[in-house]
Amino acid sequence: RRAGISVLYETEMSGLTQDDSGVVVGVVARDNDETYRIRSKAVILACGGFEANAEMRGKHIGPGWELAKVRGSRHNTGDGHRAAMTIGAQPIGQWDGCHGTPIDIDAPATGDIQVTDQMPRRSYTLGISVNLKGKRFVDEGEGFAEQTFVSMGQAILRQENGIAIQIFDSKARPHLEGRYGGSRKFEADTITQLAEQIGVDAATLAATMDAYNEQAHEGEYHPRELDGRSTNDLKPPKSNWAIRIDKPPFTAFTVTGGITYTYGGLKIDTNSRVLDSGDLPIGGLYAAGEIVGGIFYHNSLRAAGLMHGAVFGKIAGEHAARS
Ligand SMILES: Cc1cc2nc3c(=O)[nH]c(=O)nc-3n(C[C@H](O)[C@H](O)[C@H](O)COP(=O)(O)OP(=O)(O)OC[C@H]3O[C@@H](n4cnc5c(N)ncnc54)[C@H](O)[C@@H]3O)c2cc1C
After folding, report:
1. What is the pLDDT of residues 95-131, one digit of tens each?
2. Quick one: 92 and 108 in the same domain?
3. What residues make up the domain containing 29?
């Protein structure tokens, strides 16, 4: 605003406008009162991924993803993807991939800045995770949570109702992230009592726990070391921190998968110009941030989301101003 730029709040971009030669010359905007056109010399799309669009999640990322909690803006519904692809922009990247995390079952359906940061549940390396059938479904100790929470969030959403239950014993409790303190929790002195509280079949959960404990090790948790203490031929394995879960009280937390952002998006060049299906820039159209595809596949580095948005946003702005 200091630079004299108008910011229109409560206003949605619903389409792009082009001149006769196909150059983008503005957007169609919609506010509470009317739909109108805004003319411009260039358009930079920076309106996020499609994480808040349940239908697109189900279609592109897969079954179960309709149920995901959205960690960020409820407005990131893929409008930019649709508007650009309608005029010939090329999609690229892993459209069935996204950043996600295990998240408290009571997290709000979409991001709430007051509580969002309290919602991830990433101490699963120090216990076991079971589905509603009482069965393990993933290697909880494959690596540090910082390396595995994206794939863990994805694995949870593949379970019945997209739900999992993280179970710990009293040895693990002092090591849980502080944000577990705000969770609804179940606590019991036996696994059978715990199963009754969380509503899974007690015999199955007891069998799951027995099979795990048979191969797990005695000892204490050292969460900041990959301790190499793994199960032997358990399926799925637990590759680190396979410590017996045998010291009551046992505690359980119900979690689901939360989506942070999507990986599939528009193809751009090194000047952040959106490319068409022939890899030629669409005149006047740029993109930066989550809407860009081809940056992440299968996993994403921490802090890389904000970084690539800042880098390509700056490039887009400078190139658009010069052109
Ligand atoms: C809870 C959470 C934690 C995160 N933590 C990290 C982290 O630690 N490090 C990191 O690097 N990244 C992190 N990220 C990811 C990072 O925030 C995003 O990668 C980054 O904000 C993407 O920037 P963007 O401009 O593309 O989209 P956004 O910042 O999401 O902004 C998109 C904007 O476009 C608006 N919009 C959407 N559709 C329209 C439309 N049709 N018309 C007009 N406006 C529209 C939305 O309202 C929104 O304001 C986190 C994300 C979340 C949700």
Report:
1. 999 998 999 999 999 999 999 999 999 999 999 999 9
2. no
3. 12-97+263-322
Residue whose CA is at the smallest distance from ligand 1 atom 48: 47
Quick one: DSSP state of residue 119? -
| Rounded-to-integer distance, Cα 268 and Cα 2, Å | 29
Candidate of 73, 99, 150, 312 to mutate for ligand 1, largest count of ligand atoms within 8 Å of Cβ: 73
In angstroms, the CA 15 to CA 87 distance is: 10
Residues 50 and 76: beta-carbon distance below 8 Å: yes
CATH code assigned at 183 = 3.90.700.10
Is residue 3 domain-resident? Answer: no
Tell me if residue 78 falls in helix, strand or coil.
Answer: coil
243 neighbors 219 (Cβ within 8 angstroms): yes
CATH number of the CATH domain containing 78: 3.50.50.60
Whether residue 212 is contained in a domain is answered as yes
Q: Are residues 85 and 108 in the same domain?
A: no
Q: How many helices (H) and strands (E) does the chain have?
A: 6, 14
Kindly indicate whether the ipTM for this predicted assembly is greater than 0.90, answering yes or no: yes
Residues 101, 106, 110, 113, CA torsion sign: negative
- Ligand 1 pocket test: which of 6, 11, 306, 308 has the largest number of ligand atoms within 8 Å of its C-beta? 306
Does the beta carbon of 237 lie inside 6 Å of ligand 1? no
- Ligand 1 atom closest to the Cα of residue 29 is 42
Q: Which atom of ligand 1 is nearest to the CA of 70?
A: 53
ω into residue 236 within 30 of 0, thus cis?
yes
Instruction: List pLDDT tens digits, range 303-315.
Output: 899 999 999 999 9
